[in-house]
Amino acid sequence: MIVLVTGASGLIGATLCARLGAEGHEVVRVVRRPAVHGLLQGRTIVVDMAKALEAEDWLTHLVGVDAVVNCAGVLQDSPRENTGNVHAIGASALFVACERAGVRRVLHFSAIGVDREQPSAFSTSKLAGDHALMERDLDWVILRPSVVLGRPAFGASALFRGLAALPLLPTMPGTGLLQVVQLDDVVSTVLTLLGRGSPSRLTLELAGPEALTMSEIVARYREWLGWGRATEFVLPGWVAAMLYRSGDLAGLLGWRPPMRTNSAREIARGATGALGPWQLATGIQPSTVASALAASPPTVQERWFAALYLVKPAAFVVLPFFWIATGIISLTTGWGSGVELLLGTAFEALAGPVVVAGALADMVVGAMIAWRATSRAGLWGAIAVSCFYAIAGSILRPDLWNAPLGPLMKILPILVLHFCALAILEER
After folding, report:
1. Which of 257, 300, 310 is nearest to 427 (CA)?
2. 234 with 169: CB under 8 angstroms?
3. How confident is the model at residue 153 (pLDDT cuts 50, 70, 90)?
4. Element (H or E) spanning 168, and its range?
């Protein structure tokens, strides 16, 4: 069978493509941007669902395809993401194209609870995509998973690991119960429903067998990682709101944090559902969090990732602040000190312009690190500027290596932090 999978670089899509390939199916991966994905079978095509809004954008890619699985999804509108285009308009265009091309089998990932309540643009657009598929003359199945957890560390799977590394666990106020579902069970469901004679024209909620609070899920991960239970405290509502807004700001800068205002609205509703129809249609018995974790012992990579997860946003807040603030200080309150450092050197006559140039370079580097699309180049730029400062300082003011506050010595840990930021930059 030839299966086209949209959202093929995401948590569900990537694992599904691997399983399909392992079971002998030919996979056509649809990704938003070209990337190096390692040893992958099948072929990869680049289509941005937020821009592929007409059936004609899909028809050529559907030639010879037997089934389509739509795993594409975005959490919240941002400069990089558009919930309405991806979940509703783009998905509808894909479904129309499937009807025209004769690709009858279409499996579509929605989200649990969208038919009951739509607290955000995420769930509203998801429901619109569901309705668009139901209107088509296709053998469709709509899958509405709860929060999906798996061995790949992305989205909620990454967040729970990161929270598990905290000895003091902040609890967000106003969160509902979650029947988290395991990634392996979700992927097995898709494979079952792609089989010959499988049911169609139905909607299934994919939910785990136990309703847990976020704290209880984090506790399962801490136990799995070999750590004791964390001390919990409830964040004040205004602090939680500020954190969600900070996530929104990061989204505007091109990052994709899992905690944003859409997350707050969706989590308040909870993610629970009925298991019976899913089990009846597929025969799958969903795993509990504890049993799924027990089947996969933790490694040092897991502990490293958990410990570094919340260090990453801290690093990408501190580094832009450091560079931009340094530039501002150099042009304002620190102007005299900067010029004084160059007195008695070969650049004494150009002390003012040199300080201005350095300050502007610092601010540009900081802004590039803050903007996700240029963050890698910004980090390399920061490393280059730091090395330049170390070399120039060694030539012009070697005495600064022996200064009490170590102005040149501090460049060494700064360099190390930038290399660490480069190592943990990628999100998937």
Report:
1. 257
2. no
3. confident
4. strand 168-171
